[in-house]
């Protein structure tokens, strides 16, 4: 019996969600390669999955004291995220000391070491960089900051109030983003920076974590299951309408399907994030509930494996892309022979790096986790040769 098959017997683990995580990662990489203008969809999907898994984890052992649950949660999150992230920050620090690049690495080290790169865009002296090295780590800043908030909410609030808080956060995403935009406007931030700040702000993604958290609550499964199919239909209809509008205006079949990054047009940064979040929240619920005959497609073993090692692929793919482009002497255009070569090289190198990182850096720390989803009497026995798979990889 493989580790994945053993874990499928435990209701806490759904390999289809790892398959979804893998697909979200792949579209993000294709977005960075220039193939997939709507590939930023993968980012809110990551956060929805994170909200789903950490909510399951935080509510898994109500018999433990609040202090014990808090310690277990903090310990497990640090053991999951810190080893690879800290190792990468050490490398970035060495490169900064060696004066590698345009100076942006040294300038951003305080943000990187404090898991707050997502907040760097709010600095009035913010300077963008063209370096393909660390800019994608803003998402890990969002993760770390929301984890702290989630832990406090789940541990300090009674369950019914925690559920109500998730509902409020899931419904007030547009208000939070509109409030942030108003603050940026009144504070004199340049117009061109406001969409970027909104895009990278943790406030923008609180609703994604909340929607993911709601999908993990057994008491809400039935009403959410009914709403999920409607949400999929609404998203499909909205996307079709956006594409038809583009066609009617003579713009052809637009590559972003009406969802350009930063959503700059017609206040789309207020409501389109919600539309995307609700759609992928519905997908998470449908896959976790096996409420669709195509779920097995997401459980394809190679896809699940990419989901398992996705952290290493995500962290490494931007610096690897930068090095490949330097070796190639510039940026190869997508849909060309050069672009295809870069794509193949990037995937091969990122997967190799991630496998090595997972086996030799991440797994030794994962084995030290306590009080997680599988730390219970229901934990399936694993053969000594099995590859331990941790279900909470967010």
Report on this model:
The chain is an all-alpha fold and 394 residues long. The chain has one domain (3-366). The chain has 16 helices and no strands. The chain has helices at residues 3-8, 15-33, 42-58, 66-97, 104-113, 138-156, 159-171, 173-186, 194-200, 202-214, 221-248, 268-288, 295-298, 301-308, 310-328, 337-366. α3 crosses α12, α7 (159-171) crosses α10 (202-214) and α8 (173-186) packs antiparallel against α10. The longest helix is centred in the first third of the chain and has 32 residues, at 66-97. The radius of gyration is 21 Å and the shape is globular. The two termini are 25 Å apart. The model is unreliable at 1-11 and 373-394 (pLDDT under 50).
Brief sketch in words of this structure:
The chain is mainly alpha-helical and 394 residues long.
Furnish the topology, listing elements before pairings.
Elements: H1 3-8, H2 15-33, H3 42-58, H4 66-97, H5 104-113, H6 138-156, H7 159-171, H8 173-186, H9 194-200, H10 202-214, H11 221-248, H12 268-288, H13 295-298, H14 301-308, H15 310-328, H16 337-366
Helix pairs in contact: 2-3, 2-14, 2-15, 3-6, 3-10, 3-12, 4-5, 4-6, 4-16, 6-10, 7-10, 8-10, 8-12, 10-12, 11-12, 15-16
Helix-strand topology string:
HHHHHHHHHHHHHHHH
Roughly how many Å is the radius of gyration? 21 Å
Give the percentage of residues in beta strands: under 5%
Protein structure class: mainly alpha
Biggest sheet overview: none
What share of residues is helical?
55-70%
**Whole-number average pLDDT?**
89
Number of domains: 1
